[in-house]
Every structure is written in C-alpha cells, then in structure tokens.
Amino acid sequence: MLVNHQCLFLMGTVEMISRLFPIPTVSLRRSITIRASVVSSSASTARKTHPPLFLRPLTYFATLSDIVAFRSWATSLATAAAAAAPGLESIDGGPSASHLLRELSWLLEDATSQSCGKVLMRADLDELYRLWKERIERRRPFQYIVGCEHWRDLVLVVREGVLIPRPETEMIVDLVRDVEGFGEGLWADLGTGSGAIAVGIGRELGENGRVFATDLSLDAVEIAGINVERYGLKDKVEIRHGSWFEPLDDFKGKLTGLVSNPPYIPSSDIPGLQAEVSKHEPKLALDGGVDGTDHLFHLCEGSATVLRSGGFFAFETNGDIQSELVANYLSTKWTKCFTNVKTVLDFAGIKRFVTGFRQ
Question: Which biological process annotations from GO are given for this protein (predicted)?
Fold first, then answer.
C-alpha cells in the first residue's frame, strides 16, 4: 500500500513541475520573514551558478523503491531533528517538522518526473541525500538547496550570496502599481538582490517604462541578470553594479520612482536570527548598522536628488518602531523635499513600508 501511495504522490506532483515553465505559477512556498556602472565582464568573477534543480535535464533515473527509501529516511531525519530540539520555533524561528516535510515534498517535485513506469531524476540519489542532510544538519535554507524561490507569480533563481526574497516584499510591486502614470516612468530598485522587485515592476510597465536595478554584490548582479533574462525583460530592466545611487548619476532629478528593500537588521540582532538566515544569508544584505537605519537614512537623502518633482518612493523597514522612525526623519529633516509621507502595513498588519512623494 505504501508503494501505491508513493506512485500516486509522484504522478500527481511531478506534473506541477512541467507547468512551472515557461509560464510560472503561484506557489505556496512561504518561509521566513525579514541587499557604478552598467554590468560588464567583471561580473564573471562571481561564483559559477548551477541551474536550479527543477531546470536541470532529466539525466538520472531511480526505481520507485529507491524514492520510497529516500523519502522514509528524509522523513526520519526531519522528525528526529525536531524531536531533539523541542521548542525550536520559539527559540530562533526555525522550521518545525511539518514545515520540513512540506519542503521534502517540494524537493521531490523539483527533482523527479515519471515516465513509462520509471522515475526520472534531475539529480542522482546521492546528491538528494546530501542536500537533505545539509538542510537538516546545517540548517541550509531550502531555497538554496533547490536554487529558487516562488515570489508573487514568479519563480526566481537564488543561491548563496544573494538574499532570499520574502513574501512581504511583494507588496512593493503593488504600491508601485497604485502610482498614477507608473507604467511609462523611469524606476530604480536599489539593492536589488535577486532582482525580484525589479522583475515584478518590469512586468507591469508600459512601452516606455524602465527599471534600473543596482547592487554592490557581484553575486546579486549575476543572479538578478539571470532572472531578468529568464522573464524576457532585458528591454525593460537594466542591472547596474555599484553602491546604492552611484550607478544612477545620469538620472539625477529624472526618476519617476525609487524602491528598495535595504539591509535594516540592527547589527547586534543578526546572531539571534534563525540559523537559516544568520549562518547562510549574506550579511551585506542584512546588516543595517547599530540601529538598522544606516542604509535607510542614506536612501532618504539620496531620494531628494534622483527623484523628479512628484516622484514616488517606497522603502521596506524592520517594522513598526523603525518604520515610524524613518517616516519621522523624512517628515522633519526633509520636510521641504517630501510630502504625503506615511507608513504602510504588510500582510501581517505590521508597519513595514515607508512611502511618500518628492515635492
């Protein structure tokens, strides 16, 4: 009976993989809540990117009993790890056994397909065993294991060295869509990371709209470029390497809008984040300085220079207190530059974003 159930599992879930591309679909993958010149050959110095698991060719095969054995072993490893660390979620926000088992199902979806009674695979069994062991024992993020993250209706390539895009950040695209005339404007996404926001906005723009996405990290520049190309947006989204506003000297006073999900975690808080974040995600994309506002205040100041009159901005923050602090900073020190400054709630009802307009 176990084998029959596994057959049904494989037949039912692997079909999802073929539907993900070329037309991506919305996924239920949701996990954690929390980076000066046009890109050139220098980006080649970044780490070599291996294709995400579900985009690899089906060059391996296994028997159904092999898959059943792997799933049984992986389930035991996940449940044993959860039992050995009771209260893990309350300690550092780590994954529960049920969450890990959902990830296990997603791993098998990405790695396998069934044809003529055979289980075809995009990685050999030895690699699957190694990857799952890293997920459990090293607390390596699942998104780095499979090489992608589902965000809005996108499936974005990610890897070590690049921040994993979070669900709440999706709202920035919605905030942009609410701006009158946004579709034909010039936009900037600073600290683009995987390129999630830039790609999300780029897909909404009209014929004359453009997004200029910047990042200091060559890893991020490379991955963002891959995601832009995968979604056919090279004529809409331009990735530029450099720190914050430096690559945008040719757009002073010209931008319709500016968005950013900058590093905003206070330096002293980073060691206390869940291990998946503190031990694996790039500190460059997390560390916002002593109180987390170093980069946010820099973005506030730079916005006064690059935005045209009536230009819109939206910044993600650490939430509530920090959001109010940034909004107050804009409304007092920069009162002659910005108007209609306000905080915006995220999906969880937290004051996550600060928005406003250039006078």
Answer: methylation
d(CA 239, CA 38) in angstroms, rounded, equals 7
- Give the helix/strand (H/E) hosting 323: helix 321-332
- Rounded Cα gap, residues 35 and 164, in angstroms: 10
Instruction: Compute the distance between CA of residue 193 and CA of residue 236 in angstroms, rounded to an integer.
Output: 17
DSSP 75-105: HHHHHHHHHHSTTHHHHH-PPPHHHHHHHHH
Query: Each residue of 315-331: pLDDT tens digit?
Result: 999 999 999 999 999 99
Task: Give the three-class secondary structure for 325.
Answer: helix
How many folded domains does the chain comprise? Answer: 3
Q: In degrees rounded to 5, what are phi and psi of residue 247?
A: -75, 0
Whole-number Å distance between alpha carbons of 55 and 46: 21
162 and 278 belong to one structural domain? yes
Residue 25's domain comprises 2-51
Do 199 and 84 share a structural domain? no
